[in-house]
Specification:
The protein is an alpha/beta fold. The chain is built from 14 helices and 10 strands. Strands 1-2-10-7-8-9 form a 6-stranded mixed β-sheet, with helices on both faces. A 4-stranded parallel β-sheet has the order 5-4-3-6, with helices on both faces. Helix 12 packs across helix 13.
Length: 331
């Protein structure tokens, strides 16, 4: 437990990112009197608020952890530059933070990353190195570049500094809605759910934190059941539309936080992700990429699996969706 990120660390991260990351709003999701057969939420059920991290300058929550970590580097580390590996949003966050701080950034990205995310990274002045879409290829290449050039590695999730930065999402949720009962959080590598759970449990211990992931990339669910990180093959996680949630295995440090603070994991289907993206756009006026929609999908289509409560918050983690995909989803 002593290695877990503490509330004071999250509060210091909040100070570092102030004025850079947006304090995003909690947007009410309208009730929908849908037929019971759909499994959707119906009129009279508990209210849902959506934490709209799609409104960050880079369109995703990842700016919090990346900027907090990079801003904490020593001057000599900044001088040498930074490297990371990511399927998109963390890479863009590192690129944004590095440009803001005048630091060189090298990004190791799968060649399957949506073009909208790659183009954004290049526009921010970062250098992109493409690799095969496996966690091993990404991590090994980033490690080699760090060793060869003296770059500081900014991990996407398995890092206390990054977890503390992501935890500022939870800090804001409880401060803006002190009576929150259930917080729904997307899970990829686990940095977001780790930080959010640490903050929420420190400020409101009685609240429940539930992770959400696609059923086609349910390594976190399996890990919690097994009591240890369980890996899925890249070919398996690659099936989900939620490209930002295709990480094959949660990180060791995030998993330690999950075991200590997370109350359960729920999975959602591909159809539910698409339907939720459409509903967020049409009913809440929020753009969500597939990964960003999973937490809201859990509330809309899996309410019976969630803890009971009066106030629910779902984190919309990002809105960097490929335009063609978004157009297809809205049909």
């Amino acid at each position: 437990m002593s290695d877990l990120v503490s509330l004071p660390e999250i509060e210091r991260a909040a100070e570092r990112i102030a004025g850079v990351a947006v304090r995003t709003p909690l947007v009410p999701f309208p009730h929908d009197p849908a037929p019971p057969s759909t499994g959707a939420a119906t009129a009279g059920e508990p209210p849902l608020l959506v934490k709209a991290e799609s409104l960050q300058p880079i369109g995703a929550f990842k700016l919090r952890g990346a900027y907090s970590a990079i801003a904490s580097l020593r001057p000599e580390e900044r001088e040498r530059g930074v490297v990371t590996h990511s399927s998109g949003n963390h890479a863009q966050a590192v690129a944004y933070a590095a440009r803001a701080l005048g630091i060189k950034a090298v990004l190791v990205m799968p060649h399957t990353t949506p073009g909208v995310k790659v183009d954004a990274c290049i526009a921010l002045g970062a250098e992109v190195v493409y690799v095969e879409p496996t966690s091993q290829a990404r991590a090994e290449t980033a490690d080699k570049l760090a060793a060869a050039h003296g770059f500081t590695l900014i991990p996407p999730y398995d890092d206390a500094r990054v977890i503390a930065g992501q935890g500022t999402v939870g800090l804001e949720i409880v401060r803006d809605r002190p009576d929150v009962d259930v917080v729904l959080v997307p899970i990829s590598g686990g940095g977001l759910v780790a930080g959010v759970a640490a903050a929420v449990k420190a400020l409101r211990p009685e609240a429940r934190v539930v992770g959400v992931e696609p059923e086609l990339a349910a390594d976190a669910r399996d890990s919690m059941a097994a009591g240890r990180p369980v890996a899925w093959e890249a070919e398996e996680t690659g099936r989900t539309i939620a490209d930002a949630l295709r990480v094959q295995r949660v990180g060791d440090l995030p998993f330690a936080h999950m075991r200590a603070h997370v109350d359960g994991v729920v999975t959602v289907t591909e159809d539910e992700i698409r339907l939720t993206m459409r509903r967020l756009a049409r009913e809440a006026r929020l753009i969500a990429e597939p990964a960003g929609a999973v937490a809201t999908a859990a509330y809309l289509y899996h309410r019976a699996e969630l803890p009971r409560g009066r106030a629910y918050v779902a984190i919309l983690s990002g809105g960097n969706v490929d335009p063609a995909l978004f157009q297809d989803v809205l049909k």
